[in-house]
Design brief:
The chain has helices at residues 2-7, 26-29, 47-55, 85-95, 116-119, 133-139; strands spanning 21-25, 37-39, 43-45, 62-66, 73-75, 109-112, 128-131, 145-148, 155-158, 164-167. By secondary structure, the protein is of the alpha+beta class. It folds into two domains: 2-75, no CATH class; 85-153, no CATH class. A five-stranded mixed beta sheet has the order 3-2-1-4-5. A hairpin with a 6-residue loop joins strand 8 (145-148) and strand 9 (155-158). It is elongated.
Length: 173
């Protein structure tokens, strides 16, 4: 009954939007270790069950990738296309203005550097850039390549002619 309610099965029950966060150590997600995962508010989950839960196309869960040593969140996996409010706030604070070199316009678009649909890019700050509307449209032109260094947040844009331009994240005053 509860599962039917959550999944919107049956005529009596409208669907309910629910997010279940499954915290998975990175090694477990990559099948390199068998460390337990955890579910928010529920506790530990054996690795083999986490694998089945995360790979079943009928389940809608958010995979929260964590550092196996510290438990610090490293990313949110691929179930969510749109950045969360917290992710948008982070990118706005980091970038402050459009990241295209030479552009100082306000950020209007949160853009995946490695495209979500086409290139399997993730929705996390290490793969997001703030762009103005014009540069967001220009980025869609074939042969333009954007690359964001997750350690330094340095953005490198390579044009179709092979010229590379870099953009550093904004510095605090």
């Amino acid at each position: 009954m509860f599962t039917d309610l959550l999944l919107g099965r049956g005529e009596k029950h409208p669907s309910v939007c629910t997010v279940v966060n499954v915290h998975v150590p990175l090694g477990t997600a990559l099948h390199l270790s068998e460390d337990n995962a955890t579910i928010d508010g529920m506790g530990e989950l054996p690795a083999y069950i986490a694998h089945r839960l995360l790979t079943d196309p009928n389940n809608v869960v958010r995979k929260v990738l964590t550092d196996p040593d510290t438990g610090v969140v490293q990313g949110l996996g691929r179930k969510r296309y749109r950045p969360s409010r917290r992710q948008r706030d982070f990118v706005h604070a980091r970038d402050r203005h459009c990241r295209t070199p030479g552009c100082g316009r306000a950020i209007v678009e949160m853009d995946h550097v490695k495209q979500w649909h086409r290139d399997q890019g993730t929705t996390d700050p290490a793969n997001l850039q703030g762009l103005c509307r014009l540069d967001h449209r220009l980025k869609r032109i074939p042969e333009w390549k954007h690359q964001l260094d997750p350690a330094t947040a340095r953005l490198t844009i390579t044009t179709p002619t092979g010229r590379a331009y870099t953009s550093e994240p904004a510095q605090s005053p």
